[in-house]
Amino acid sequence: MIAIVDYGAGNISSVKKALEHLGATAEVTSDPQVIAGTEKLVVPGVGHFNRCLPLNRQLRLPLLDSFSSGKPFLGICVGMQWLFEGSTESPETSGAGLFPGECDRFPAGIKCPHVGWNQIDVRKDSRLLRGIESGAFVYYTHSYRAPVGDDTIASTEYGGVFSAAIERDNVFGVQFHPEKSGATGLKILENFCAL
Amino acid sequence: MPCERLTKRIIACLDVDAGRVVKGIQFEQLRDAGDPAEMARLHAEAGADEIVLLDITATSGGRKTLIDTVARTARQLFIPFTVGGGIRTLEDAAQVFDAGADKISINSAAIARPELISEIANRFGSQAVIVAVDGKRGENPPQAAEVYVAGGRTSTGREVLQWVREAEKRGAGEILLTSMDRDGTGIGFDCELTAAVSGEISIPVIASGGAGNAEHFVDVFSRGKADAALAASIFHFGTHAIADLKQTLLQAGIPMRWPC
Questions:
Q1: Is B124 within 8 Å of A11 when comparing Cβ atoms?
Q2: What is the model's pTM?
Q3: Are the beta carbons of A139 and B80 separated by less than 8 Å?
Q4: Pair A89, A103: CB distance under 8 Å
Q5: Which of A23, A148, B27, B197 is 20 to 30 Å from A125 at the Cα level?
């Protein structure tokens, strides 16, 4: 079973729909016990970084445990940004700090938010992006972006280069919305389901 | 600034009345020409970057039908899905999101009560809120374009450029700009008005109204500075229409998602 963590950050029904389309059993939950007992975790999220507060409070322990237990974890959009140290969008809200660096806003002078289909550059072999090649299109909608680092498995160019996808051991993150990225996105979710 | 890899979007719009698509879009393999769920899926397969379902149901009893339609459509759709028409309150919006929409589009309800924009944005995020603006300017310059409601019949007395600035400030994530001068004419988008709106705000602008051929799309993306273009009738000619359109746009140097 895949637990989709509901922490009040926007509309998450489409993630559940996509996972179920792939044959997975998914449950939307905010119950720390369910989160602790599940096989896999997805933390979706759209909206403001300050919405991550519940992830730092009542859900923090089961989520941190999942990182160390080897349980596959996928953060989507703000759910991925939370894996970093924080975001200038809400300096008082910390991230999980699993990946180094801070998320920040796109520079002035380009349209923000970054909305629409953009390409990814695959940077290294990964389990999450197995079968996905550089140049594949994915759907984005965000105003803040995560830096590129050693764990960046794919990047995208828009007002500079940012992390499109990250992976370290059992922890994965994507800035784009795989549930809205057509066949490419479904393939990525399928890879996650198959872990 | 390297941002040209972000593609321009082609958005297919389905006008739905009481749960049925009302414009005859012809897909050869379509079993039921009026089913929004099947039509949306086929458009997605044919290469549309997003789907907008516009509910034009006039009767009050049509509301429940819409929610069912949205749920059925969303189930098989894995690209962005917007629902517009008849959303007047936060509760209306919540119902449509619950049924599976990714974004909602509001028009006259936002004019009547602009706070609605921030109410929905605060709860569902700005990315989920499209403010639809029907603009009309006749022979006047874009700066004089006025916002109309009721299908272009009633002027609100508001200037388009002022209203889109306000909508952005209140939390709109995108603007869907329809030229009431061009809508249904097939003579091309109002590129001057679209460019003026695009220059006024930093959120994306979806151009609508007047699409008749592929050159019109080239125009609205280059001269009109649109981020996306929406049309219904141009896609009436079958499954190859979107692919052909995207090929023409790519040849003109407009970044497109291809292959889809």
A1: yes
A2: 0.94
A3: yes
A4: yes
A5: A23
